[in-house]
Design goal:
The chain is of the alpha/beta class and 383 residues long. The protein has 17 helices and 8 strands.
């Protein structure tokens, strides 16, 4: 068993930048299709991992959706997920108006007082209400459950109630009856941009309760199950680049590191923050939608780079780890479905894929995947 190849496909988070990721993946898929027309992309990999926007791509690939179609789905649902400014503003106003706020008690000097919960809620709304994201995910994945995926899929999220990472694994019983759309919704719940996703799935809750009881026997009361369900937020809090999570799973299953890791980023180097801005910005600046929520960009890009560095150090042979990551020269907005922004993403993808760097990496990945040993294993898995 340990002599067979082990291959990982990994996708970073990145909001609408998933279009860029899908475009890069499409070129890999086209190359493989030219060699083996009857093989689906998912058949080449033992583990497929994704975070946030990357969770949608990972689950899409695992469902047998082509990279070309995934890119088309991003464009089709872009405005559902990230409505235009006026629609977003309208949604925020409606959510505010639906709250019963007694403005006779409003006092700017004590608006953050612990007793003014309604005022706080009025002033603290996610930018998007999440209904468009949920609708899009249901349209893409329907009622299919996570455990129905033929591929071994890993998706990251974060439990804010218990302050712990949640690593969804399609081969684990506690996650198998979760709808795929829920897994992706939880992994894509970017703080400030979208509301947390609350999971109430029976198997998921039962597993947590059993785990909590086991911990309690040893005097550990840290794990609790809320009667309202478990609120989960963006997987980028855990790992914006999920490659390391997938490698750990491979090491656990096979007792060895993988033979190849194809890791797809969603672009980096956007929105330079000046010295003056970095020293003078407060909460509203760092969380500004107009600036594409720079705090999230900095946090997720930094996390992704850290994983990239660690994974590079794990392998003696540089061919084992192939990282596709364009560097932006323009300001690309992570949470915008504006036509110009999408066109810019596609242009960045085309320019990057024309570089010698990308072409060399593309050849390295394809050569690893179509080697004789890999082809034999793929055939056995497909039989």
């Amino acid at each position: 068993m340990f002599n067979t190849p082990r291959r990982i496909l990994s996708f970073d988070g990145g909001g609408i930048r998933g279009i860029l990721t899908a475009a890069m993946l499409e070129a890999v898929e086209d190359k493989l299709k030219a060699i083996n027309p009857d093989k689906e992309l998912r058949e080449y990999f033992d583990i497929i991992a994704g975070t946030s926007s990357g969770s949608i791509i990972a689950c899409g690939v695992a469902c047998g959706i082509s990279a070309k179609d995934i890119k088309a789905l991003y464009k089709l649902h872009a405005l559902d997920i990230f409505p235009e400014f006026l629609e977003t503003l309208k949604s925020i106003i409606i959510r505010h108006l639906n709250q019963t706020v007694d403005f006779s008690t409003f006092n700017i000097l004590n608006m953050w007082d612990i007793d003014n919960e309604k005022i706080k809620k009025f002033l603290s709304q996610p930018i998007y209400d999440g209904t468009g994201l949920e609708y899009s995910l249901k349209e893409i994945f329907g009622r299919q459950c996570f455990g129905e995926l033929k591929s071994n899929v890993i998706i990251t999220s974060y439990d804010v109630y218990n302050h712990q990472a949640v690593i969804f694994k399609s081969n684990k019983p506690e996650f198998q009856t979760l709808p795929i759309w829920e897994v992706c919704r939880a992994s894509s719940a970017v703080p400030a941009a979208f509301p947390a996703h609350v999971i109430k799935n029976e198997e998921f809750i039962d597993h947590l309760e059993a785990k909590a009881k086991e911990k309690a026997k040893n005097g550990d009361e840290s794990l609790k199950v809320s009667p309202d369900g478990i609120p989960l937020i963006d997987g980028g809090i855990v790992a914006s680049n999920p490659a390391l999570c997938a490698i750990a799973e491979c090491r656990k299953q096979h007792k060895k590191l993988p033979d190849v890791v194809a890791s797809f980023g969603s672009g980096a180097g956007l929105h330079r923050i000046t010295v003056r801005q970095a020293q003078g910005w407060g909460a509203l600046n760092w969380m500004s939608l107009i600036r594409s929520i720079p705090l999230m960009d900095v946090f997720f890009d930094g996390s992704s780079d850290a994983v990239d560095y660690i994974v590079e150090q794990l392998f003696d042979d540089p061919n084992n780890y192939v990282r596709f990551q364009p560097i932006f020269k323009e300001n690309v907005v992570t949470f915008s479905a504006d036509a110009k922004n999408i066109a810019l993403l596609e242009d960045v993808a085309e320019r990057y894929m024309d570089t010698d760097e990308y072409q060399q990496k593309l050849e390295r990945v394809v050569n690893c995947l179509i080697s004789e040993k890999s082809t034999d294993l793929i055939s056995s898995l497909s039989a």
